[in-house]
Amino acid sequence: MKQRWIKIVALFLCAGTFHSCQDPTPDPELPIDPEVPEDPIVPVPEAEYFIGTDLSSLPEIEAAGTIFYNTEGQLVDAVSLLKSMGMNTIRLRLWVDPQDEHSGLAEVKAFAERLRSARLKLWLSVHYSDTWADPGKQVIPAAWQGLSFPSLKDSVASYTQRVAQTLQPDIIQLGNEINSGLLHPQGDRNAQPEQFLELLIRATQAVRETTPEARIMLHYAGIAGADAFFDEVAEVDYDQIGLSYYPRWHGKDLADLKTTLRRLSERHEKEVLIAETAYPFTLDWADWTNNLVGLEEQVILPSYPASPQGQQDFISVIQSITTREVALGRGFCYWGAELVAWRGPEATDGSPWENQALFDFEHRALPVLDAIELPQ
User: Fold this and answer.
1) How far apart are CA 324 and CA 375, in angstroms?
2) What sign for the dihedral angle of Cα 236, 227, 218, 101?
3) In the chain, how many domains are there?
4) Phi and psi angles of residue 217, each rounded to the nearest 5 degrees, phi first
5) Do the domain assignments include residue 10?
6) Rg of the Cα trace of the chain?
């Protein structure tokens, strides 16, 4: 009797859940595979590096008849040589309306086409001035002087759109060493901080509307004060932090440089690059123009003497920091590779950088180029 009741109960339960007992089709709300699926693999985009040099004066230097040689003393095209040695990017400055054609839009456009033909990336340094812009000098272009602030913003936007569309840069640096702001007095960072930000915001909007694929860089000179500066521009839509680093002016502690780059990139989640750096291969001179670095106290001793080897070792460290030791480090730009004493050995208006160029006093490529290595 007990076994009979067990059979009856079992039949009743099965009848009440006929679908479950008879239909092998699984419940659609239950997973077909009882194993827990693995998390999908999200591909990490490959980092893009920018290893290069500023060659803004090369058209003027070449026009003067200057020629360059490789390490074996063979005549070479400077651009082709630098690419063959591992560089993939050339930085060019742009002035609004310079006194001569140099660094104006026409010259920069022609040079940019040459770089494109060589399959090099273009890093455009927009000075928003008719001449040099730096922490101590941000002179408003002559054509924009006297404009109301709304009109100045419109001029910045239209100019930025025009140059971005014309030149199609891979990196567009909005202003040069803008520690104190740009377009003084209206864009003075200290006296008119809100207007300074408004000008940057209008410029970045112009780039996004015209060349959205271009990386936007903000450029600060040095290490001291960099944290405060990039905190202040946090609301600006940009992609890269660029720092100038010259031991003479910005300190001789390379560990401090690395720490600063790490801190800035992590805090602001931005790519970081050394936008300008240089180092002497000698303290001698090749013309009668005073050099900017000419004393032993201005270099890092004893680790990096002013010698070809010291120059090479310094750049090796800069490259390591900006491509391997900082997670968002994306490279560096050497300043003045081409700035040999092209105006002659007795020129008093020649090059103050010839002892920091990437070519020696005979215009032969220096060993430092062997240190250049594009990350794979």
Assistant:
1) 9
2) positive
3) 1
4) -115, 140
5) no
6) 29
Catalytic residue among 177, 198, 271, 338: 177
- The domain containing residue 339 runs over which residues? 50-371
Is 276 designated active site?
yes
Mean pLDDT of 167-171: 98
- Please tell me the pTM assigned to this model: 0.88
Rounded Cα distance, 77 and 94, in Å: 23
Query: What's the angle, vertex CA 236, arms to CA 231 and CA 238, rounded to 5?
Result: 100
Determine, yes or no, domain membership for 117. yes
Structure tokens belonging to residue 350: 């020649």
Of the listed 198, 271, 276, 338, which one is catalytic?
Answer: 276
- To the nearest whole number, what is the mean pLDDT of the chain? 91
**CA nearest neighbour of 300 among 268, 255, 237:** 255
Q: What sign has the CA pseudo-torsion 167, 168, 170, 171?
A: positive
Asked if residues 356 and 293 have their Cβ atoms less than 8 Å apart, the reply is yes
Percent of the chain at pLDDT above 70?
A: 88
- Tell me, what CATH number does 275's domain have? 3.20.20.80
209 is catalytic: no
